[in-house]
């Protein structure tokens, strides 16, 4: 039997049928330009005031560290907390019980429509090479709660910087190829 995470055991033959934290890690990294993310403690309950875990993308560590420095210098965590706390708590069972998963989904929708747009506009006007979004990272569990939802603040390289870097890389590859061609002649 394969043990995944701290609490989850996947029955034999079901490993490829169940998505887990480990095999769904790629989901938040799929969008072009992602350089890293801050994971907000969301298991078992969302703890906005908790310690945020940085999640790195391979070969993007230095760029992400610069983005985290900007996050701290601009005190974006305090703004993020304020924006999240402005989203009303979701509930079920006639309003008797809080619904953490729905609240996380509401936070993602609300912040991406409002707070994230405002922050990204400020960063763009300051000609910063980073922008943000809020992402719902989720997977299905083999046992216990059927799905796990994690709130992430993702950091991106600006498209301008990505295009510049891609152009530099492409031109250096072309010049290397031209040098090889000249050596052959």
Textual characterization of the structure:
The protein has 185 residues and is of the alpha+beta class. It has helices spanning 61-73, 76-85, 100-113, 115-125, 159-184, and strands spanning 2-4, 8-10, 34-40, 53-56, 91-92, 97-98, 130-140, 147-157. The chain has a 4-stranded antiparallel sheet with strand order 4-3-8-7. Strands 1-2 form a two-stranded antiparallel sheet. The chain has a two-stranded antiparallel sheet with strand order 5-6. A hairpin with a 6-residue loop joins β7 (130-140) and β8. The longest helix has 26 residues, at 159-184. It is globular, with a radius of gyration of 21 Å. It starts with a strand and ends with a helix.
- Which percent bin holds the helix content? 40-55%
Strand/helix succession: EEEEHHEEHHEEH
Number of helices: 5
Cα(first) to Cα(last) distance is: 61 Å
What's the number of extended β-strand segments? 8
Strand order of the biggest β-sheet: 4-3-8-7
Low-confidence segments: 1-8
Proportion of residues in β-strands: 15-25%
The average pLDDT value, as a whole number, equals 79
Structural class: alpha+beta
């Amino acid at each position: 039997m394969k043990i995944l995470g701290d609490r989850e055991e996947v029955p034999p033959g079901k490993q490829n049928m169940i998505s887990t934290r480990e095999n769904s890690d790629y989901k938040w990294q799929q969008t072009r330009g992602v350089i890293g993310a801050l994971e907000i403690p969301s298991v078992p309950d969302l703890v906005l005031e908790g310690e945020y875990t940085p999640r790195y993308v391979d070969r993007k560590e230095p760029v992400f560290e610069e983005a985290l420095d900007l996050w701290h210098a601009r005190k974006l965590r305090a703004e993020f907390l304020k924006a999240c706390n402005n989203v009303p708590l979701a509930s079920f069972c006639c309003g008797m019980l809080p619904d953490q998963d729905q609240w996380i989904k509401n936070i993602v929708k609300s912040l991406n429509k409002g707070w994230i747009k405002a922050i990204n506009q400020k960063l763009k006007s300051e000609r910063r090479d980073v922008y943000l979004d809020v992402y719902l990272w989720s997977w299905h569990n083999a046992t216990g709660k059927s799905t796990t939802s994690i709130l992430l603040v993702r950091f991106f390289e600006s498209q301008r910087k990505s295009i510049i870097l891609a152009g530099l890389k492409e031109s250096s590859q072309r010049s290397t190829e031209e040098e090889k061609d000249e050596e052959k002649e």
